[in-house]
Write a structure and sequence with these properties.
By secondary structure, this protein is of the alpha/beta class. The chain is built from five helices and five strands. The structure holds 1,3,4-trihydroxy-5-OXO-cyclohexanecarboxylic acid (DQA).
Length: 151
């Protein structure tokens, strides 16, 4: 049986985690978050890839690549593109892979321009405000789904 696979996409400025506004985003670096997700994936014997880009075009291209190299689930923190990117939304709609939208901070407790997302209505769910645990909760959900629906 082929291992189930998850792609975690991190949008712009998330490469600066650890340095960037820790009052909103915590102290963990992106590598630390990715390492925690990789350990969880290993325990669950699923395959996990992580990808960060500051470029909308690169994120669209990465999502489009899933047409050829498919994955079972996507976890995406679109970061600032959450509030701006119809292009990334359209790529996810085209690919049809189920995805969860995650945010480290609680976007609803912040500026009003962060309250609108181009992704939430087409996501399986949205997890916002749990810090790095937003990603962990999303990955646990995907693993639970895989266990409920054996390949
Ligand atoms: C974010 C929230 C966005 O509003 C912001 O632009 C980010 C990070 C979060 O994880 O809390 O870059 O997606």
């Amino acid at each position: 049986m082929a291992a189930r696979s998850v792609l975690v996409l991190h949008g712009p400025n998330l490469n600066l985690l650890g340095l960037r506004e820790p009052e909103h985003y915590g102290n963990l670096t992106l590598d630390a978050i990715n390492n925690a997700l990789n350990s969880l994936a290993q325990q669950a014997t699923i395959s996990l890839e992580t990808f960060q880009s500051n470029s909308e075009a690169e994120i669209v291209a990465k999502i489009q690549s899933l047409a050829v190299k498919t994955v079972d689930f996507v976890i995406i923190n679109p970061a600032a593109f959450t509030h701006t990117s119809i292009a990334i939304r359209d790529a996810l709609s085209a690919i049809k892979t189920p995805f969860i939208e995650v945010h480290l901070s609680n976007v609803f407790a912040r500026e009003s321009f962060r309250h609108h997302s181009y992704f939430s209505d087409i996501a399986v769910g949205v997890i916002s405000g749990l810090g790095a645990d937003s990603y962990v909760a999303a990955l646990n959900y995907a693993i639970n789904q895989f266990n409920k629906q054996p390949a």
